[in-house]
Write a structure and sequence with these properties.
The protein is 37% helix and 17% strand. With 432 residues, it is of the alpha/beta class. The chain is globular and about 65 Å long. Strands 4-12-11-10-7-5-6 form a 7-stranded mixed beta sheet, sandwiched between helices. Strands 1-2-3-15 form a 4-stranded mixed beta sheet. The protein has 13 helices and 16 strands. The longest helix has 18 residues.
């Protein structure tokens, strides 16, 4: 594509399309992509970018993978979609069986939905309907952590950080929830009583109102890329049991190997009542999410007034999505994925280490296939995005964070290019 055609496509986009977290009046530059293969995005003008984002963390196998392509093609020949109300199909059954086998035994009921935000909505509705069915309709509040992020729909927004989160503008319209201080105990450490004091105080005061506690286990994602000790989960599980409240894990971002364990819950012996999965579930091919729950929740809801869980997405358990999800999860399990994630963690740590010496950088941290440079001040996306493209990488910072969550197939040479570009751009932002 010529330079003029490239610019024309950008102009057509700018005239009609509204991109995520972007202005419709003064739209930032976007970069047309014509092909994605392996870990590389090919722009319409022929430039290639190493993708450090795995398409917002979901393309764990990279792009255009023959195994996943074959799964979609094979399913397409049989059935692209069928409603899930009153019908079923093998891909949904097999995927549910696989997810149940990979997660703790108690999580034995699977509800499919369209996206991570909807999976969280489903989890919140499960919690509320459970207590209503149990004759305790006053238990309607949710407890979440400060610095948390759980999605962009209204229920999910209500449990995102109400002050520092991206949804504070909607505060007056959202249900008022309760927020406990985020854990400060670093990974690998024990959490003391002081780490649990705020959560304990909230549950003690509001035990009759709280339906569930929702957390992102081990890693708080879009709320700040904060890592914390798995021991917090052990102590949180005990608190939820003590005060008779449900526990929800939002593993939309952390599921399927990102933290070095298959699920973040595997870092601790602390099983939730409800588990949300998404993003990497299909390897980035289709939109699909799952909410798993234990028998306590499913039996409690089903034996209540409604006699059924009151939710039903139109595209629930889409056969194409379930088929590619099966292929993606099986592909992950067939590979030495833990070795790959450990290698990526080491490469990210060594590659990003030079940024720690920059005066405007407050922290550099890695966990699994996540590498983060935290700055003292927010980045200007209009300035920073083209700088990364010029260096041949795709990195999408937010707020004060310049981070990478690359596909698991990313080689060490590409990781070196990626981290060098991150350090270089961050240095440039500081005027060095």
């Amino acid at each position: 594509m010529s330079e003029d055609a490239f610019a024309a496509l950008q102009a057509r986009d700018r005239a009609l399309l509204w991109h995520p977290y972007a202005s419709a009046l003064d739209a930032p530059e976007v970069f047309p992509v014509t092909r994605a293969s392996g870990v590389r995005l090919t722009l319409a003008d022929g430039r290639e970018l190493i993708d450090g984002m795995a398409s917002w963390w979901c393309a764990i196998h990279g792009y255009n993978h023959p195994t996943l392509n074959a799964a979609v093609r094979a399913q397409l020949d049989d059935m692209a979609h069928v409603m899930f109300g009153g019908l079923t199909h093998a891909p949904a059954v097999e995927l549910a069986e696989l997810l149940a086998a990979l997660t703790p035994d108690s999580l034995n009921r699977v509800f499919f939905s369209d996206s991570g935000s909807v999976a969280v909505e489903v989890a919140l509705k499960m919690a509320l309907q459970y207590w209503h069915s149990r004759g305790k309709p006053g238990k309607q509040k949710l407890v979440a952590l400060r610095n948390g992020y759980h999605g962009d729909t209204f229920g999910a927004m209500s449990v995102c950080d109400p002050v520092t989160g991206m949804h504070h503008l909607f505060g007056d319209a959202l249900p008022a929830q309760l927020f406990a201080a985020a854990p400060t105990c670093p990974p690998g450490t024990q959490c003391g009583d002081e780490d649990m004091a705020d959560m304990r105080a909230l549950l003690a005061e509001h035990a009759d109102e709280v339906a569930a506690v929702i957390v992102e286990p081990v890693v708080q994602g879009a709320g700040g890329m904060r890592f914390y000790s798995a021991d917090y989960l052990v102590r949180l599980r005990a608190l939820c049991d003590e005060y008779d409240t449900l526990l929800i894990y939002d593993e939309i971002a952390t599921g399927f190997g990102r933290t070095g364990e298959l699920f973040a819950l595997d870092h601790a012996d602390a099983v939730p009542d409800i588990l949300c999965l998404g993003k990497a579930l299909t390897g980035g091919y289709m939109t699909l999410a799952a909410t798993l729950c234990n028998g306590r929740v499913s039996h409690g809801i089903s034996s209540g007034e409604a006699g059924a869980f009151m939710h039903g997405p139109t595209f629930m358990a889409n056969p194409l999505a379930c088929s590619v999800a099966l292929a993606s999860v099986r592909l992950l399990l067939e590979q030495p994925w833990q070795d790959n994630v450990r290698r990526i963690e080491a490469d990210l740590a060594s590659g990003l280490a030079p940024a720690a010496g920059l005066p405007h950088v407050t922290n550099v941290r890695t966990l699994g296939a996540i590498g983060v440079i935290e700055l003292a001040e927010p980045v200007d996306m209009r300035t920073v995005q083209p700088l990364f493209v010029e260096r041949g990488v795709w990195v999408r910072p937010f707020g004060r964070l310049v981070y990478a969550m690359p596909p698991y197939i990313t080689g060490s040479a590409d990781l070196a290019t990626l981290t060098a570009a991150m350090v270089d751009v961050v240095a440039t932002l500081g005027g060095n």
